[in-house]
Amino acid sequence: MHLFQNAGFAYTALLLVAAVQPSLAKRKDDVVVMKNGDRFTGEIRGLQHGELSFKSEYMSQSVRLDWNRVERLESQDQFIVALVDGRRYAGNIEKIEGEKTTKSEFRIVSDTASFEVSQFEIITIQQREASFWKQLTGSIDYGFSFTGNNSQATSSLSGDVAYNTPAYAIDLSTSSQITAQSKGPNTARYTFDAKYTRMLTQNWLYAGLFDALKSDRQRLNLRTTYGGGLGRRLVRTDTTSLMALGGLVYTHEDYFAEPGIEPVRSNGESFLGLAFSTFRFRSMDISSNALVFPSLTDPGRVRLSTQSNLRIEIVRHLFWDFSLYENFDSRPPINAPRNDVGITTALGWKF
User: Fold this and answer.
1) Any idea where the domains of the chain sit in the sequence?
2) Which carries the bigger pLDDT value, residue 175 or residue 2?
3) CATH topology for the 2-19+134-350 domain
4) What are 110-148's pLDDT values in tens digits?
């Protein structure tokens, strides 16, 4: 157990190091030409949610340009480009010169191929870094609350990091909630989640899952779940994504000891789930993930795991986070609450 807790804190420290690490030198001669003729020279940071992030030497911070109003990009750097149909490529982006009536407006030139796409097909552009560490993206947030009636203090800390390539993506996240009070027992909750996805076709993908949970409320010392399955993208636009998942997992559980009850259990389970995210109002992110685990070795037992987040940008990179989580077990193997539900609010930083 101490190993699991220490791993969570070590991972959080890694997030902090990655967040403050200085950026590698990038070219500052990228050019963005708008459809009204405006021309900017500097560094293309990336495209997300229909906004092209761009930074020039004479700008105090990055500006966000409407992607639909961009006429041309000029850069000698390579980028990871994601298309609306799920394809991902690494290469240069060039404007196609010539006939205005052509449906293809941009050319993506990779190391092995060159092909043309229309502007609305490009939904994300990410800088392709030379270093593994600088290819990481993520966030970290912290929240604290205090209630005077029972001298209850709650501290929450969470972080996530992602590594994306044209072929696959790795996502890691961790969280901790610790509650101390003078008129009741102290409680703690720790989580660690890892997901690996690899595209098989434009819409189908393979997913590998691993997660660990410690919940004092559910009298759970540690539950580890790992397995894999298939996923399909149902919706993918520049602002909204919806994906369905299904497969098989193995679960190992270690509960608090009770007289006459075996605290260690192992289960085979299937799983079905949805992952949803959307971006609204230029500064609001909403994401929600839900997984249902019907047991195969203990028929009738069903677990549910959900996590939803609302993030509102305060200033560049700084955000306010509202999080709602739930872990439900229809038939715990010991005398323990079936539900573990919580809400946290925090301030965070994106990198």
Assistant:
1) 2-19+134-350, 30-127
2) 175
3) Porin (2.40.160)
4) 777 787 888 888 888 888 765 666 678 899 999 998 876
